[in-house]
Amino acid sequence: MNVLPQFQLPVIVDNDVNVLALTEKYLGSCIGVEDFICLALGTGVGGAIIVEGRLVHGSWGGAGELGHMSVDFKGPTCVCGGKGCLEHYASGTSIARRMREKLTLNNEPLDNLESRDVIARWREGDRLATEVMEETIAALGSAIASFIHIFNPKVIVIGGGVAEAGELLFEGIRREVATRTMPSMLEGVRIEAAYRGNSCGMIGAALQIWEYGVPSLSSSNEGFI
User: The domain 4-212 is classified under which CATH number: 3.40.50.720, 1.10.10.10, 3.30.420.40, 3.40.430.10?
Assistant: First the structure.
């Protein structure tokens, strides 16, 4: 789609987690870091991969679908068609859904429950919420260990609404990752919260100018990247 006729301005297009990664690269935990991974835990689970200082887009822009790495090859079928995807366990949507399922089995239906409610109950020591969040942490630990083994990053950045659970979540993830990762690969790796939480996407969208420069209206890309 050529958007130039609509705006009469150069346009740069990318997904929310890739631009989150630009925020981390220029302003956050990854200043001066050449190799890092970003995860966003929200409605789904998105990812961004930075290798030698550059975003990896893949052959047509689809790289970074880290939420669809399987953490349980016999797990439930995902919307992508795979089984046991990370997204099924670590997204805000899945956290709320799994908690509702547990409450229903416990004769405590609560249809309007959201992930923030589960996290609040977890902080208070609720047994069912703890079960849900421990499963979430285990899935994240498994996936992040794989990312470390594959990409050898210096930093793993986690953002999105679920990351607002704070240090309770991050302590669990770091502990889980440590049990699943080769010590030599884990050495020096940091797991950090996103620089500005849910605002990182908006900041990163603006930072695309720093990353790519201003595209020319007369360039062969017809006004968009």
Answer: 3.30.420.40
